[in-house]
Please model this.
Amino acid sequence: MTPLIQLSSVGKTLTGQGRPRTILAGVDLTVHSGDSVAILGRSGSGKSTLLSLIGLLDRPDSGQYLLNGRDVTRLPERKAAALRSAEFGFVFQRFFLLNHLTAAQNVAMALVNGQGWLSRRKRRARVLAALERVGIAHLARHKPPRLSGGEQQRVAIARALVREPRVLLADEPTGALDTETGSMVIDTLLSATAQGCALILVTHDGDHAKRMGRVLRLEGGVLHSAADR
Model:
């Protein structure tokens, strides 16, 4: 079976102020459909940079990135944007919801670009199905200020899932939540893998990481199995 994601010797160097700093130094990673992978590492280790490369928000300086067998290492931005819309869903620590829109309207925003034309009925059906999938369809008409932190994060997850992505990238999605609510959010993310979506979770929480099928640690710019550390 062709891997959904395959990184081979991927490197990334930041060249901002001061001397260049190598963040990733030969990362190898293989992910198949339905996999769940946690990536641990101290602050500044490059976890978010790695997620940005996987999500085609940035490009590696070296190595190769195959997405479903297609080489996307040096993909032009226009083509990368189309793939991001078609293949990826993103969930972050901050919810990035628009307070003047309802939960349903926030989720519908994800259908504006890259999904082709959808009738109003089909768009509403997709949105309600996504909200139902994360257990909050009954809050479709509520605006973010009326929702708890966990409910807002589930709206953000529904927004990521409404386009039916093949890969879900979650960067510290429970960082602003209490322990119980964070566990509920992890439940929601993992439920997507049952339908074939791959999940890559960046987290500082070891308990959440252990719930993934694989736990990796980013150290010295290289991914290692957490069990080997």
Q: What stands out?
A: The beta strands are 5-14, 21-31, 36-40, 62-67, 70-71, 88-92, 167-171, 198-202, 214-219, 222-225. The radius of gyration is 18 Å.
